[in-house]
Amino acid sequence: MAQSEAAGSVAVRFAGLWIGGSAVALLPLVAAAQEQAAAAGKPKAPPFWFQLLPWIAIFAIFWFLLIRPQQKQQKEREAMLARLKKNDRVVTSGGIHGVVTNVRDGEVTLKVDEANNVRIRVSRNAIAAIVNDDGSSDSKDAK
């Protein structure tokens, strides 16, 4: 009972300063409230590992929704570029359709126009998809 009376007197004592418009009057009230909370006993803080659980959950969500699918897609693309061979029909990332005539380490030569025998050299990474004879794509990138 003595604590609540003391807090009440602190509030009454500084109420006049607050009415005057001074925000400084709140500081003693906050200090008195903190003293009451300390006197009542401090609640225990949760364990440190418990505070890490939300961060672990966020990382797991990012892993399964963003990072893992991207890694899988990148492996499929690397496998598609590795099996690129002569006479494959391909589509470049720029939308050019052609037939592979030569494959080197970093570049591919495409035959674009068969009537005029037009050939272009593109980077191997510029190949977006290998196209089947029926026009469907082997790669999910072209969809």
Short note summarizing the structure:
The chain is of the alpha+beta class and 143 residues long.
Q: What does it look like?
A:
The chain is 48% helix and 20% strand. It has 143 residues and is of the alpha+beta class. Strands 4-3-2-1-5 form a 5-stranded antiparallel sheet, with no helix packed on it.
The CATH architecture of the domain at 80-131 is Roll
Mean pLDDT: 80
Q: Per CATH, what is the topology of the domain at 80-131?
A: SH3 type barrels
User: Could you state the order of secondary-structure elements as H and E?
Assistant: HHHEEEEE
Order of strands in the sheet with the most strands?
4-3-2-1-5
What share of the residues does DSSP label as strand, in percent? 15-25%
Alpha carbon gyration radius: 36 Å
